[in-house]
Input
Amino acid sequence: MRSVIGSNTPPARQRIRVALLGGVGVFILCALYRLLIGDAYGDLNWPLCAATMLRMGRDPYAVCVLGDGYPPNMMTTALVVLPFSFLPGIIAGPAIFACSCGLLAYGLTREAWWRLGVFGSAPFWVAFQWMQWSPLILAITLLPVLLPLFLVKPHIGLPTMLTRLTWRRALACVGFGLISLAIDPLWPLRWWSNAQGYTGFIPLLVVPGPLLLLVLARRQETRGRFLLLAGLMPQRGFYDPLVLFCLPDSPRQMLLMALGSWVGYCCSLAIGGDVRIWIVLFLYGPALLLVLLFPKREAARELSYLQQMTICRGEDILR
Output
């Protein structure tokens, strides 16, 4: 049976090789960078601490405390990194980030190699510096079978969940949540009380009015709905909008998004000011242009998908 995605789709074996090689490369670079700056954990400090406390039978919300403006993660985040907590610190953090990048590389190449351009974007390299979860959230967006993992950072992964939810995936998410509640039924209350110190921002409130209305005008499209939901989620820095890189539909669009992200990031370093403005202008701005200027590509892809499905079914009948 022919692929329903297209005849130019990279073979699965090559995708797996690229994902493995990419993951190993990211692990080496990340470990060297963590050694260079003398910080083994980055923003994975609390999850790894919490996972270690769980193994020791202690309360992570009582032991693992961060500074002001950095509330602890959910219990589900600690459960995801639990297997990595057996590794030494300088290995555990880079291993988690490398696994996320390996999954991301596999998901990106589902349709074409050019999607690997995500790794040349500013949000990815900022996520690399801090060892953030945004590469995993983008991987989940591209590989919805991983949807329960969005609970590692639900305020960023919520657009993915809402636009890719099926009843089976919903049951998997509920099951994962129930496992965390079985370990500690009261963790949501303690996490929520600590989360009040979160100092993030909502992108659509930074430049309100025209931006929001333009997105709403295209809300009937999947990409428009996704962009609208992403803009309504509280965020913190340049790494969080990495999930927007699921929107480009061609190499040129990917290049537009990547270059825009670097312009915004360089402006934030060179000019300074409110980082939120640069994120909205140079990440959400190009994403909005893609939704508004290229609305028919999505419909064309859906039509191509249906045509290929019809061909495949016809071949099966003839056989």
